[in-house]
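USER: I would love a firmer grasp of how sequence relates to backbone shape in proteins. This is the protein in question:
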Amino acid sequence: MKIVKFCNIKNVYETRTAARLGADYLGFHLISESDFKRISEIKISIRELKKTYPKTKSVLVTKETNIKKLKSILDEMEFEVVQLHYPDSTNIIAQIRSLYGSRLKIIQVITTNNTVLSPLADIYLLDKSFLGGTGEEIGLEKIEKYLKIINKPNVLLAGGITIDNIDKYLNLRIIGFDIQTGIKSAYTNIKDNTDPTKIAKITKILHKAVIIPQNQVGYVIQDINQQNNDSLDNALHAKVDFLHIDISDGFINQPTDLVITKQIINSIQEYSLHTRLQLHIFAKDEEAYRKIIKSLQTFECTNIQVFLHINRDNFDKFDFAQLKKRNIYFGLDVKDLIDEQFNWEQFIRKESLICLQSTEHSDRINNFNRIHKIIKYIFKTNLSITLDRGVDLKSLTEVDDISNISLVSGSYLKQNIIQKYNLLKMYFYVKK
């Protein structure tokens, strides 16, 4: 399987998308003045990779030739890989290797006009030029000729690689691809530099496995009463792991105003298409569910997950054979699972949403713990479960096994989103 490195990642939202979709390396530029203004954001992204996506390695993409300055950046930022974007880098590579040994990987950028390779580099990145990000292809014939000359197995190929042309390079004697312009976003919203759909298509071509992150904390930006959307800016500023939206046809609570809901989704996507969204849909039957989906027009959105709520009143109102063929997950009530009102096991997928009983039930966490053990016993795999309804730090501490647990919270987080989000994440980190 070919590896893939995505380059010029700007923020934690893009980091989450690319890592979740199976990227092997993510390149963060520290070259221009504007790049250095984003150091705090890059630090957050590197921390996210180490905590949540350790298989995806952070890469410093630099043109710095001063070893003291380079060492200062590497030590401060804790990158796992450095990529040198200039010719005659062999001396700097030797100095880096003497300072860091094998704990820091080195990528040496080379071109077809640059034949000086360092034997100390871990990977050679073949590009059209040292500028990078030009979107210009080297040319298949020239690549094949140059690969024979250098005779190295550990070569990454760059230079105008896109969804449309990557197929013609798959059989080359290379370890993978470095892609920048091929994932660049065409949108001019606040955050995005890359396009999540392009990233998803490339990782699919390369047969990358989607990573299901554990111990995530989401915020209910719209609850079943259609409240909380006034705190969207705070939630985005807090960089919560995902946003959660409740939607009902009237089957549970009052019908949701889908026009307002669509506006909320649009606002989130205008901020960043990389923001992960959970749509928790309460529908009485398949027709009602289809109307909601059609109204929201969220088909084929890379970072939107749909959870259809199933309970004792609607479990027989859907064609589940068809639903399971699509990228649809299910939400279930703990009470229904305990009472075994229907064959709920068929609705447990690799990701599931489980709603606790309301907070007046003092045994609601104990009931979840019972069901959680049953699920783990039945399926024998580490399925991801997101807890919903009245979840706070206290209730999380009462969960026996949080290894595969994420949560979504509304009123508790709203009190102080940044502080409460960090408290919940800290609890997960400490317990790991």
